[in-house]
Design brief:
Layout lengths: L1 H21 L10 H19 L7 H18 L5 H29 L1
Helix pairs in contact: 1-2, 2-3, 3-4
Length: 111
Amino acid sequence: KRGGVFTGSLLFFIGIVFVLKHFNILPYEFHDVVPELSIALGLAFFMVFLSDPASVGLLVPTLIFSGVGVVYYLWWWDVLDLYDIRHYARIYWPALIIMMGVAMILSRKKR
């Protein structure tokens, strides 16, 4: 069940990106492939979480993949500065490790 939800969601979100590019809503830029794929992966993990809410550990890859894509676009649109991103990454990287540990603990208790 999980594999079908993940694969189907990933193909759906990538298909949406191609449709938006076909109708010129999103520009054809080669450098946008990585953040678009990253956001699609994050949304696919979120869809798997929605299909099985007991698997809280899936929120970590959701936040990581979606966060990378969103931060890229915020940087590209000059909302965030590269130095701000580096500053926050340097300060808050332990929070990511803590979130991963909590997600692993919660997923083991549910089983």
